[in-house]
Design a protein that fits this description.
The protein has about 260 residues and is an alpha/beta fold. The protein has 9 helices and 8 strands.
Amino acid sequence: MIDTHAHLNYPPLAADVAGVLSRASEAGVARIVVPGTSRESSDSAVALAGQYAQVYAAVGVHPSDAHETTPADIERITTLSLNPKVVAIGEVGLDYFHFDELGESEVEARKALQKAVLYEIVSLAKEVDKPLIIHSRDCFQDLYDILSVEAKGMKTVIHCFTGSQEEADAWLALGFHLSFTGILTYKNAEALRAVATGVPWDRVMVETDAPYLAPQAFRGQTCEPAMVMAVAEQLAALKNVDVSEVDERTTSTADAFFNFVS
């Protein structure tokens, strides 16, 4: 099994990486992708990938950090992107969720900055020929309008997918992948489960987004990569297959997407 998105460099996981990885291995998780969300977290993701064989990195800028991102940050992320254990660029994208306390002009300025960083990071992914990890929240149309042009033909995954059937269909039509987290197991996620049921095997991946979004059976606990098995079990139930088939299928898809190297 591969956890395609886990922030091992975030607290509290960062204080016990060896333990987290040991528990993941015991659960059958062989590889973990740690995405960068800023210059600093991209640096630490690459450092972890260098220290642990089963860890791989991605480098990028979370949209919520876009307004604080400098040209020097982009330059450093560009340098990091060349590391052989950097298997993707991201996460990056758009996020319009936390705008309630901002004035209209500030909201528009933040949106513009997020889009500017997105264009830069997508351009970087093209330059180094690595896949994209996309963050999307309350922004579908703007994000679709950009990626349908700028990321056309690129290997791209919408991480932590929680959108509608229509949104899933739109992303899949572009050739994108969808990745599901512990949200898939939540009691109020019936609509999301219906979407996940129909995603083709060669387009679906699983992740934890640890330390966030612990699956239903672990609610209230810090999420860890070992818990990705609960996501796989839910997907197995939806597709009416054994969890071993989910393991085999999603691992094959993630291997092809990330092109892991030792």
